Amino acid sequence: MLPIQNNIGLYTDHYELTMAQGYFLSNRHLKRASFDYFFRKNPYKGSYVVFSGLSSLLEMIEAFHFSPEDCDYLLSIGFQSSFVDYLRTFRFQGNIHAVREGELVFPYEPTLRVEGTILETQLIETLLLNVLNFESLIATKASRIRLAAGDRILMEFGLRRAQGLGGVHASKAAVSGGFNSTSNVFSAYYFDLESSGTMAHSWIQSFDDELEAFRTYAKHYPDECTLLVDTYDTLKSGIPNAITVARELHQQGHELAAVRLDSGDLTYLSKKARRLLDDAGLQHVKIVASNQLDEIIIQSLLSQGAPIDIFGVGTSLAAGKEDAALDGVYKLAHFDGTPSIKVSENIAKMTLPGIKAIHRFVDQDGLFGADGISFADEPDYEFIHHPTDPHKQKEISKYTKESLIQEAMHDGKNILSKQTPAEVAQYTQKRLKQLTEEHKRFLNPHVYKVGISEKLQQNRNDLAKQYLKKDLF
Amino acid sequence: MLPIQNNIGLYTDHYELTMAQGYFLSNRHLKRASFDYFFRKNPYKGSYVVFSGLSSLLEMIEAFHFSPEDCDYLLSIGFQSSFVDYLRTFRFQGNIHAVREGELVFPYEPTLRVEGTILETQLIETLLLNVLNFESLIATKASRIRLAAGDRILMEFGLRRAQGLGGVHASKAAVSGGFNSTSNVFSAYYFDLESSGTMAHSWIQSFDDELEAFRTYAKHYPDECTLLVDTYDTLKSGIPNAITVARELHQQGHELAAVRLDSGDLTYLSKKARRLLDDAGLQHVKIVASNQLDEIIIQSLLSQGAPIDIFGVGTSLAAGKEDAALDGVYKLAHFDGTPSIKVSENIAKMTLPGIKAIHRFVDQDGLFGADGISFADEPDYEFIHHPTDPHKQKEISKYTKESLIQEAMHDGKNILSKQTPAEVAQYTQKRLKQLTEEHKRFLNPHVYKVGISEKLQQNRNDLAKQYLKKDLF
């Protein structure tokens, strides 16, 4: 049954191990390296990412080791015994600096930096990308749905369509991105989330008629009764039966909590259902809607005045549709005391050298103005430069400067204080309020400005020249 | 560290548990039920799905239980002690019939059927959907990439962009769908796959120059040396340095295995690289290509004559892009001795009642002609009827009839013989040869015919009439 925690050393790409063995056999493995995590493209055609997965990652890195079983396996597939012996006692002992979990971040920002020996920094690459890319993808989606839904209640329903065991962290990231609860009981248990859920169509079908099904449910759940009303005919059967049960509950001193619509035109049905409920004096009964929802559909429903109080969102959230993946990468930025870059025929794909910091420049209203990337040991800078267009720069001296990078792991030990997903969500919601509306628009959002310091620009250009001396065009 | 196997009873949607408790408290929990698994829409705009995940599912169902820890948690969130006590010794003891792992299946076919008490059949719903939907999504993608790549070697590289722990089963499903190997060492270990991988750009960057990086790698891996040639300049630096190392290896009695292209125009670069290698007498050095590949891009590269021998495919495979999810559902079809349906305002979403079988009608050349769905205890039928259009039918008496459904679990015990993903892949490849080309086309493939028997059609219509007696339009 997938004992990942027993074999976590194997949770990596094969090439991390061939490289690690190569470093080890050529006695280069203790040279110091620094890698950056960053992504190039916002998901969902949006303008930002909610950086997520840091706490999961630190936990997994602390646990990262090679069991005797792992070592036997590596020997069996051809790794050399001197290297495997080194792995037997291997633990990651490097340092990690990162932005806070739940921070809003933007393309090309080195949001997380790993420093240590080349062997240890290389070995954790796959694990790191796997965790950060996915949780950030889902938290970002959740934050968009939260933007669309305003203060309404949001329930995550996606485990059945999640990507296998990916559903475990999907539910966590959904809550840290702004959802109120999840249907996923395992994740609720493991990450201290609220779980929720009531009935499927099969409950209704297993009774002779809908009213009996509703009554039986209400009998056992009188104070938390949400009735699914679309099994046969929402307006002619489901809602009238729900009203009957609501009245019976009321006579017994309870109140029906909600009805759930799971098919049909949700604007049309929610308006009609609201009217029927209100006419029956059931103004307190809430309307839950589900069925292939996402932020765009929720925005459309609400703009048409659909009186929906609670949304259940499944597939598009838990699987991060339409993107399915965040393209985050992990690139060597400093090696053996020297800044390093990967050049490219495309300047936009050239990496930024050295040990870097990120600053956020906030205006007097508390709104984000722009971000700057500089060397970590660089003094204040007055301008940020467009990363690829040498003609564009922006003065940032009138803004208040926030430092975004903090140490998260020191000598292999997680030094962050533990936060629940709900606490992370609070921070993200606060930060989203500091991002101007035009960056939060779903359709063609305004691009958020991220620039680099002059010193960093100069250093990158100097390094690039060393490599790009041949005729490249 | 995510001890899923210790808390597998919680790996479910909350509503499965509220319904299970409701059945239990109303003493209906031992009534017999039968649920069908099926999907409505092919992923990737294709015409078929590779049914996958059966062995994973059976393993998880056999392990499914509620630990003391799980029970404490359920009590803490409000479940009643009599119900939780029932769960303490709960084990799934029902029967499962399904098509073979790796079978080609089509929309609306009940590819898997679960029979047992309503409580046990309901409780495993989420787990079942989570596993089957995801592995089928990925195996289907892999099969499409295999169709595009012909006999070339395919390596799965996606763990870094996979949906968290979803990567574990993604790699397995990639191989059962037709890939030769994976980069994911954990999955290779756990599922007995071949893992592969050599070097990243960081390996090259960590040396003073590319040639030294290549030489060092070749020294440690003289017989399995694939050199990544695009760190600085593929044609002016990477390939010439690879040729130098190939000659040095040859003098030492070894041969360079391959070069890998990971950026730029892969047709242009592979043609130029092939020419340079051939001119150097290195016809045996293979060309590996990677970088955002999928079946459409591979088909395009090969149609332009790109001399690529090996493809590495990551994100689009491991995350099942562009769909990210298969929409498989689990619907009650028989309850307490009686066929059951969920009606709908849309006839295409109405379920098929009863305990059913699937037959494949194969022509004299061994090609698939059509599939039929009937009651399991129904004698031979001569016509299949379009499931929603009453005017369309097809005679199938001239075809050879194959029964697709077999028993996979009996009284809660897995009764299938164990198969490796490579064995499953062989079956899928054999079946793909029986599917005509027009169904395998990527652009607007021909829809494969799936019909229902007259008896099934009649029964469904009769049941529907009972519910749809009111004015529905």
UniProtKB/TrEMBL annotation, chains A, B:
Protein purpose: Catalyzes the first step in the biosynthesis of NAD from nicotinic acid, the ATP-dependent synthesis of beta-nicotinate D-ribonucleotide from nicotinate and 5-phospho-D-ribose 1-phosphate.
UniProt name for this protein: Nicotinate phosphoribosyltransferase
Any one Gene Ontology BP term: NAD+ biosynthetic process via the salvage pathway
Q: In which pathway does it act?
A: Cofactor biosynthesis; NAD(+) biosynthesis; nicotinate D-ribonucleotide from nicotinate: step 1/1
* Post-translational note: Transiently phosphorylated on a His residue during the reaction cycle. Phosphorylation strongly increases the affinity for substrates and increases the rate of nicotinate D-ribonucleotide production. Dephosphorylation regenerates the low-affinity form of the enzyme, leading to product release.
Which positions fall inside the Nicotinate phosphoribosyltransferase N-terminal domain?
10-133
Q: Hey, which family's this protein in?
A: Belongs to the NAPRTase family.
Give the Enzyme Commission number: 6.3.4.21
**What sequence ranges are listed for the domain Nicotinate/nicotinamide phosphoribosyltransferase?**
154-349
- Residues in Nicotinate phosphoribosyltransferase C-terminal domain copies: 356-458
Instruction: Please name one Pfam family that this protein belongs to.
Output: NAPRTase
Coiled coil regions in record: none
Keywords in UniProt for this one? Glycosyltransferase, Ligase, Phosphoprotein, Pyridine nucleotide biosynthesis, Transferase
Q: Which InterPro entries match?
A: Aldolase_TIM, N/Namide_PRibTrfase, NAPRTase_C, NAPRTase_N, Nic_PRibTrfase-Fam, Nic_PRibTrfase_pncB, Nicotinate_pribotase-like_C
Could you tell me what reaction this enzyme catalyses?
5-phospho-alpha-D-ribose 1-diphosphate + nicotinate + ATP + H2O = nicotinate beta-D-ribonucleotide + ADP + phosphate + diphosphate
- Source domain of life: Bacteria
Q: Which GO terms describe its cellular component?
A: cytosol
Among SUPFAM superfamilies, the record links this protein to:
Nicotinate/Quinolinate PRTase C-terminal domain-like, Nicotinate/Quinolinate PRTase N-terminal domain-like
Show the taxonomic lineage. Bacteria, Pseudomonadati, Bacteroidota, Bacteroidia, Marinilabiliales
Q: Name one GO molecular function term.
A: nicotinate phosphoribosyltransferase activity
